[in-house]
Amino acid sequence: MSLTWEAVIGLEVHCQLLVPQKLFCGCPTTFGGVPNARTCPVCLGLPGALPVLSREAVACALRVGAALECVTRATSIFARKHYFYPDLPKGYQITQYEAPLLEFGGLDIDTATGVRRIGIRRIHMEEDAGKSIHTDAGTLVDLNRAGVPLVEIVSDPDLRSADEAVAYLKALHEIVRFIGVCDGNMEEGSFRCDANVSIRPAGSPVLGTRTELKNLNTFKGVHRAIEYEIARHAHVLEEGGAVVQETRLWDDAAGRTRAMRGKEDAHDYRYFPEPDLPPLRVDADEIAAARASLPPLPAEIRRRYVEELGLTAYDAGVLTSEPALVRWYETALTHHRNAKGLCNWLTTELLGRVAVGELETCPVTPAGLAELVALIDDGTISGKIAKTVFDGMFESGESPGTLVETRGLRQVTDTAAIEAAVREVLEANPTQLAQFRAGKVTVRGFFVGQIMRRTGGTLNPARVNEVLDRLLAPTDNRPDES
Predict the structure, then answer these.
(1) b or e along 155-184 (b: 16 or more beta carbons within 10 Å of the residue's beta carbon)?
(2) How far is 342 from 311, CA to CA, in rounded Å?
(3) Do residues 62 and 181 share a domain?
(4) Full residue range of the structural domain in which residue 460 is found
(5) Ramachandran area for residue 184 (φ above 0: left; ψ -120 to 50: alpha; else beta)
(6) Do 391 and 468 reside in the same domain of the chain?
(7) Is the same domain home to 132 and 267?
(8) Residues 278-322 pLDDT 10s
(9) CA–CA separation, 114 and 414 (whole Å)
(10) Contact residues for 144 (Cβ-Cβ < 8 A; gap 6+)
(11) In a domain, 482, yes or no
(12) Is the pLDDT of residue 80 over 90?
């Protein structure tokens, strides 16, 4: 009988900082470009070149720490982490080790058993390595990425499943994008993670041997890789074997991990303080400025949308999926406060036509959409007419008010005109009218549909229903119309 295993997972998330220059030199951080063109003696590690720390990158790192409720060290130390790899030109990486900039934070995530707080052990600054490009002809090295500023966010081993790991990663991904320190582009590698995975008998306090899954850059890949590795560990142990501490790569096409190299311990890297950089000192004013600069975080926005605006949790989740979407929606709310109406038109009609990244240049503006919803709310137009108006807004960029007037789309509210239309439909459908009189009340919906169809949806629906009910009432129950 096999044991019940408990997974123990910790994530190391590498987050490229949105600053224009590299961490220790003036080379641009723009993604792509001609290979090896965005380099200089400093990021190439040429003899005699000295690093100079970017304070702009430090400010970004402090924002991350503030968002994740970390303790900030007044004095932190940069160190050299030695290892050989083709895309690491110096033969070492400048990072932080014993004295990181940020420590002891946390992040709340939703799990199957409720909200859990995942500890964040440390956040340290470091430079990125270059990129190895493997081809059939051999391996090529592009050093444009070498020296790009990173923060590495290291969680405590508090995660217990692949689902929890992905929930944590998504929450972190949201935060760094909302506070403007990272674009979160996983395909380009600006947000990626390593996962440390081990298992132990359920209830045991003793940690098992861990393996490191390297450079995972999709949420789906993280989930599949961790699930595979948990199952692999269990199989090895249940067959009487021992898990080897090593670094493994995820092969997405094959759906399995494979060994890359033996997993180093800290002493293997021969850390020592970086002799060319002084200690990094930050004062109370810098820490306070980082905290003051934070916008509302996604979880806080979702809570406000549900509790104060009355949106569903699902709607709030959709609206907070992208920072640009929140900005657009919040701007619309300043023009009209029908939160649910604006949400519905934005998420179904507008996002059905444009991507979030195209909202800023879309012909339909936040003010325009707010005006459209207001026209529906005050009875000027019906929901059906609104779709025609929306089409016109999208095609011409004109305001909804202008389109309603120039195209004669204003909703009819005159009782006499509505009654004439209702009588016309009733007289044209004597069979259905007889069925209704005989007790088949579902025919009423047929009449409403015919009335709105004949009038192109221009009649006020509430008035239509009032008049229809009056005319369908038994003769002896009708109000005196004399």
Answers:
(1) bbbbbebbebbbbbbebbbbbbbbbebbeb
(2) 11
(3) yes
(4) 415-477
(5) left
(6) no
(7) yes
(8) 999 999 999 999 999 999 999 999 999 999 999 999 999 999 999
(9) 54
(10) 32, 33, 35, 36, 37, 38, 39, 130, 131
(11) no
(12) yes
In angstroms, rounded to a whole number, what is the distance separating the alpha carbons of residues 435 and 445?
13
Residue length, the chain? 482
Amino acid 244: pLDDT: 93
Q: pLDDT tens digits for 344-391?
A: 999 999 999 999 999 999 999 999 999 999 999 998 988 888 999 999
Residue 446 maps to a domain: yes
Q: What does the alpha-carbon distance between residue 457 and residue 389 come to, in Å, rounded to a whole number? A: 12
Write the CA distances from 458 to 113, 239, 245, 328, integer angstroms: 51, 74, 72, 30
153 and 76 part of one domain: yes
Is 87 or 53 the better-scoring residue by pLDDT? 53
Asked if residues 95 and 274 have their Cβ atoms less than 8 Å apart, the reply is no
- Does residue 133 form part of some domain? yes
Tell me how far CA of residue 435 lies from CA of 439, 451, 465, in angstroms. Answer: 7, 18, 19
The answer to whether 398 and 364 are in contact (CB under 8 A) is no
Tokens 């890359």 map to which residue? 260
**DSSP per residue over 375-388, as a string?**
HHHTTSS-HHHHHH
Domain count, the chain: 3
The rounded distance, in Å, linking the Cα atoms of 292 and 102 is 17
Q: List, for residues 107-119, the tens digit of each pLDDT value.
A: 999 888 889 999 9
